[in-house]
Amino acid sequence: MEHSIQEVTFHHEPGGDEFVKKVIKTTVLLSVITIIELGLGLLMYAVPMASALELFIKGVIVILSLAKAFYIVGVFMHLGEEVKNLIMTIVLPLLLFVWFIAAFLYEGNSWKNLRNTYKGTPAVTSPAQQHVEGKH
Amino acid sequence: MSTAHAQMETKWWSGGKSPFNVEYGKLMMWYFLMSDAFTFGAFLISYGTIRFSQNYWPDPNEVFNAFPLAGHANLPLAFVSLMTFILIVSSVTMVLAVHAGHKNDRQGVIKWMIWTVIGGIAFLSCQAWEWTHLIMGDHSVLINGEIKQMGTTVSMNPWGLAASVTGADGGHVTTPGPVAFGGYFFGITGFHGFHVLSGVGINIVMLIMAINGTFERKGHYWMIEKAGLYWHFVDLVWVFVFLCFYLI
After folding, report:
1. CA angle A76–B236–B243, rounded 5-degree value
2. How confident is the model at residue B164 (pLDDT cuts 50, 70, 90)?
3. What is the pLDDT of residue B227?
4. C-alpha distances in angstroms, B44 versus A39, A70, B49, B167, B231?
5. What gap in Å lies between CA B202 and CA B206, rounded to an integer?
């Protein structure tokens, strides 16, 4: 009997009002981050700027979005309160995204560069083909 | 002393315990969400690849600048901000429903689930309006020397560079933009919208079960918790859809 009681040991109940306060705090935080993101997005639209600066602002927006994701997963989904091994089985596979994103965006950029430098199919130059044409 | 120490550091793998200390269904929900994250990730990375391969890509501030009942006012990103806030708030009401479930507070669960369902439906309605506006919108586009009217669809993109001519009424004329824009936008926001739709469906089922007292008879509200995980995931995905399509 004691065995079956131990088997199921979930006791994740977060504290009462304290938890509600934490939720409200997180909501405000998420809203503020979203407003900052929008502000930065509109700044790029309203003010003409160097593309390097624009890239930097976009990077900042990406980091802010990752912060939002961290708060949603950590507070709303309570992942932070789970057993560490469980957290690792969820988070470690997601590290594949690092390579996934880097490789594919590099690939996309490479396509662009190749297309931009492509001069069209070169005229027939190989001796073999000239030979065939000469026979006509 | 040694027994106290043993109790402090639980040996999860010594047998007789659930090593991850969660119920089976919740663990599987986490793994489902992880796999779903890869699906969305693959879509978004594919979009990023195509976008990186183009010399020109439409500016979201110009594409998404309409607001219902605001006529032709230029309000970049205003409507999508509203959609984002609706989804964040519905995520919060979901947290409160799960919290009420922990306290076995049936009335609380019912109240917050109703708000969550309303939030989900509101989001879907906004998306329906946005899609309709994009598809039905008329924009003058110069194609083969002729000015044609077109909206944004999976095969047409009027958001190209400005054309060298102006319309008969002196209006703004563009060249066609990259076709992939519409396909990725409707494909990915549609896939997310479908998740929201199924989330609303799941939440309605949870609401009915709560009203019928199913969870009270079971003695716990774990199903609300699992539905909650799914719903938060939908919000989480929107953070990245919002980032990739509207902000950068």
Report:
1. 140
2. confident
3. 96
4. 23, 19, 9, 36, 20
5. 6
Residue to mutate among A68, A98, A116, with most B CBs inside 10 A, is A68
pLDDT digits 0-9 by tens, B167-183: 777 778 899 999 999 99
User: Between residues A11 and B12, which one has the greater pLDDT?
Assistant: B12
Q: Please state the domain extents for chain A.
A: 1-82, 83-117
Strand partners, B142: B147
Assess contact for B203 and B116: CB atoms under 8 A.
Answer: yes
What are the tokens at A87? 């957290």
Q: What is the pLDDT of residue B87?
A: 95
Which CATH entry fits the domain spanning B40-240: 2.170.130.30, 1.20.120.80, 1.10.150.130, 1.10.3720.10? 1.20.120.80
Residue in B85, B184, B188, B244 with CA at minimum distance from that of residue A61: B244
CB pairs under 8 A between A and B: 151
Contact present, B40 and B191 (Cβ < 8 Å): yes
- Beta-carbon separation of B236 and A83 below 8 A: no
Give tens-digit pLDDT for B4-32: 454 556 777 888 778 888 889 999 999 99
Give the Cα separation of A91 and A86 in Å (integer).
Answer: 9
Task: Judge whether A7 is closer than 8 Å to chain B, CB to CB.
Answer: yes
Q: Which residue of A31, A85, A105 is in closest CB contact with B49?
A: A105
B21/A116 Cβ within 8 A: no
- Do the beta carbons of residue B76 and residue B228 sit within 8 Å? no
- Whether B18 and A8 lie within 8 Å, measured CB to CB: yes
Q: What is the pLDDT of residue A7?
A: 47
Which tokens hold the place of A125?
């130059």
